[in-house]
Amino acid sequence: MPWNPDIYNKFKDIRFKPFFDLSELIASEATMKAVDLGCGTGEQTAILSDKFPQATFLGIDASPEMLSMSRKLEHEHLKFENSSVEKFLDTAGSWDLIFSNAALQWLDDHQTLFPHLISKLSSGGKLAVQMPYQPENVLNKLLSELAGEEPYRSYLDGWNRASSVLSIDDYAQILFHSGLEELDLSLRIYPIIAAEAEVLYDFISGSALIPYIERLDEDKRPVFIEAFKTLIKQHFSRFPAIYPFKRILLYGRKS
């Protein structure tokens, strides 16, 4: 089940607010060599390129479906590449800005990942990262709960995705001991007001639900989806409902 930019962008306004908050943390420089990891459709990378017109930006994403919308955005200082964060980490060179909005939560072992990312910053280089705080977000917890119950556990061959996202205290320690200064770390709530349960399902179906659906046999997918929708309705028993979606924002400059 590939990423679907149309489904993902149904909640464009909700997904863009933390992006703008994160971009405001970045100290302006005359010139920057910058990379956007997990750039998706490239629209946010293009906004960053406009915000920092003297910088050169490379947007990287592993999904060709998402990147299909990015080519029309390219110009002299903005390019896109179908690649992964893992491949990026294996490349040579340093960067003045490593930016990532709502992508690194898909990678494991953040105790190793973040020091590796920081090692690729030039002196004075900046790291700016935003991630959904999955351990405390209700829809993520409901999804994991369902996947751990029978018969869905058997349908998934026992697979369940444990969130790799750490506590904000853990990230403070990692960033500080990896040599970042001017730290700005926050846990913020971005409320989603849903008129009905289907809205909440649609929101998570464009991201966290995807790897679960990919692992299910085709005939089991509608069964799992219907059970998940039922679980959402049971939890949010009153509509309209507020879903206080939590996100972590991390920023620092390399000494």
Automatic annotation (TrEMBL):
Q: Which residues cross the membrane?
A: none
Where do the Methyltransferase domain residues begin and end? Answer: 30-138
Where does the UniProt annotation place the signal sequence? none
The GO molecular function terms of this record are:
trans-aconitate 2-methyltransferase activity
Database matches in Pfam families: Methyltransf_31
Q: Which GO terms describe its biological process?
A: methylation
Spell out the InterPro entries in the cross-references.
Answer: Methyltranfer_dom, SAM-dependent_MTases_sf, Trans_acon_MeTrfase_C
Which superkingdom? Bacteria
Where along the sequence do coiled-coil regions lie? none
The protein, known as: Trans-aconitate 2-methyltransferase
